[in-house]
Amino acid sequence: FPDHPCPYYLASGFQESNADQVYWNNASWDSFINKHKELREKGYQMIDFEGVHVGKGKSGRFWGIWRKTNKQSRLQSRGSWEDFLKLVSDRRKEGYSLQDIESMLNRSGKRIYLGLFVKTGERAQFVQKYRSRSYLFSSTENFKKKRKAYIIDFDPIRTKDGKYQFLAVYTQGSDKKTR
Hints:
The chain contains three helices and nine strands. By secondary structure, it is of the alpha+beta class.
């Protein structure tokens, strides 16, 4: 995302692997979802995705990585933070863990929250929303020390006033991603 407007954006890196993987980039939402369904039917699990809002009235652009595996994954969105938290809770009851979180504006300019859920069944997790980078950093250190919880994903959100909020996903009991 060379033109990403967030000064906190961190570029993703790719590690060489012998795993059977597929990378799909710069796709519209419809194209992205169709590719996800196609790959899921072929036994691929989405392991990471990114989304960028490109302007009111336009479709966002999406990037994703899928790996051949026997795990199930679901990509779902909600239009409010409260509804997204309920979705996370509902999926957890079904044995799905939130692995990746994104937030962006849809075509009409309304904020949506997207989550990648993977069927793992064993992870205790929680999701937080912070009003600043300093809260993200201090809370992450505090969770690590007091709750043995580790951050596995975060997403910066640019608000209407030009400031940033941060979404974060934590998992308890291990500092390793569950992907």
